[in-house]
Amino acid sequence: EAQVTQNPRYLITVTGKKLTVTCSQNMNHEYMSWYRQDPGLGLRQIYYSMNVEVTDKGDVPEGYKVSRKEKRNFPLILESPSPNQTSLYFCASSFPDRREAFFGQGTRLTVV
Amino acid sequence: SQQGEEDPQALSIQEGENATMNCSYKTSINNLQWYRQNSGRGLVHLILIRSNEREKHSGRLRVTLDTSKKSSSLLITASRAADTASYFCATSSSNTGKLIFGQGTTLQVKP
User: Fold this and answer.
1) Are the C-beta atoms of residues B15 and B71 closer than 8 Å to each other?
2) What is the C-alpha separation between A29 and A7, in angstroms, rounded?
């Protein structure tokens, strides 16, 4: 089954404690991205990757890092989480030729 | 940056009625897509309409696109309680795969 898998689904952590949210897709998509979703602000892109070893900032990259060492994986790293990073995070993947995007089920992160 | 504005922000209808949601955008696009999100879950792709298309159908969904007005509408006919969800339009303006989302319309269908 074609899917994007994120883990964990829920995470509560403390300020400053490094964390990683994993994302994996099984569709051989070149393009992967991370979004955060906040009430009243909609979905905003954090980082994206056009292919292995190619990553770039989205609209709200501050406080986040990503890596793309393999085509299927695109982890999101919060080196020093802060309460303003409390949000619902989505990973998505697609082919970069204008086709539909597939989304993971989301990771609800709370930073206290 | 948010490209799309959706209207209305919230919509409540009775089962069996039609639901219409509108989306406006600002820049030229390659295609416009509609996604559905059940509460707190991932987004699911519904339909894609290319910039050279004016109307597209998929089951009970009908999407129109007016590039001169930079707007699109999503019509759900004969709505069901299971259609209760948030609906987002998203535009693609390049070959990079990047999508820019609207704020979404929350649809409630009462049984």
Assistant:
1) no
2) 19
Per-residue pLDDT reduced to its tens digit, B38-59: 987 899 999 999 999 999 999 9
pLDDT score recorded for residue B3? 57
**Do B33 and B43 touch, CB atoms closer than 8 A?**
no
- Cis amide leading into B111 (omega within 30): no
By a Cβ cutoff of 8 Å, what residues of chain A touch chain B? 4, 30-31, 33, 35, 40-45, 48, 50, 58-59, 88, 90, 92, 94-106, 108
Mean pLDDT (chain A, rounded):
94
Spell out the residues 6+ positions from residue A14 whose beta carbon is closer than 8 angstroms to its own: A81, A111, A112
Q: Are B70 and B93 in contact (CB under 8 A)?
A: no
